[in-house]
Amino acid sequence: MGLIVQKFGGSSVADATGLMNVARVITDTYKAGNDVVVVVSAQGDTTDNLIDKAKEINEKASLREMDVLLTAGEQISIALLAMAIEKLDYPVTSLLGWQAGFETDSHYGRARIKTIRAERLKMELNKRNIVIVAGFQGICKYDDITTLGRGGSDTSAVAIAAALGADKCQIFTDVDGIYTADPRKVEAAQKLAEISYDEMLELATLGAQVLNNRSVEMAKKYNVELEVLSNQNKIPGTLVKEAAILEKMLIRGVTKDANVARISIIGVPDVPGIAFKIFGKLAARNVNVDIILQSIGRDGTKDIAFTVSKEKAEEVLETLNDSLDFLSGKEVLCDTDVAKVSIVGAGMETHPGTASKMFGALFENDINIQMISTSEIKISVLIDVEDADRAVAAVHKAFIPGK
Ligand code: ASP
Ligand code: MG
Known about the structure:
The protein has 403 residues and is α/β, with parallel strands linked by helices.
């Protein structure tokens, strides 16, 4: 018995059947004597559909108005879920983000939680009510509604667990845990019993779709133990925690991220300050740059290539083309037919040969590597997008041969 925070994603609450199933999971937890706070996302594709509706009217709608629109999705799901629980005859209250005390900064569309004023939540729990909170939303100092960025409901759940000192934060999804690769694509993918925050953070950032990376960051910061599990079958999921058992695994997962573009700026002078000028321009526009590669200077010039997310490619291309004279460069190229394939695992820190094993698997499958980047616990390669699924399968097989 204790305080449990449960989060259900959009696919779990997509329709009446889903909502009733979720209501049963919640009331079972409550019946066992626990206090329960539930965070839900918008039903199914609601958020995407709302975005489409906005675009039909105004492609450049303000982020403030987008937030007013998008938070409607979660308002619908909390009400419907509360009704499902009422139907099962349990005491329940639904709360919007601001009612649950979510105070954020005023970066509309991607706000950060500043604090949670948890009085209302505590009051409802004291009354032994099940509390259903709208994920992904809060209120800023101007009393405006804000959203936390796509997939933000995970973060809402972790934040509540941290604020209330919950015993457990369970993230229910349509997969039953964290796998070593996307199980829909790699048959030999294995479910992990445990994974560390740092490894999960890398996986989430590098393309694993299960948890939002900000939520993992927050879980690490406040030491909230997460469990990722299925709302369908009652089997243990994956625990995300500080120190996870290693299971004799060198790597925890292989991911693919096709949301990348490679930008190359050709023929810039091989003198000090060029990288500073280029990336200064991009920083001023708030562009996140990932892998960076600089060629060795030849005949006084060099090339610099880097990756950005696909959405930013157009803007980066424009910015650099406008600055081509200032940078004394020859031309700027952009390739969007690329993907980043990565391996993640704390084990590689102490195991030499991890990189060569990965590169060997790619070589054997005749896959060309365009760029490489590494950290203590991950190795990423940029390759042709057409090779990406094959690359994931080959690399996965090299490290996790299957049972
Ligand atoms: N409904 C929001 C989205 O689709 C938040 C979430 O699902 O976590 O991004
Ligand atoms: Mg959603």
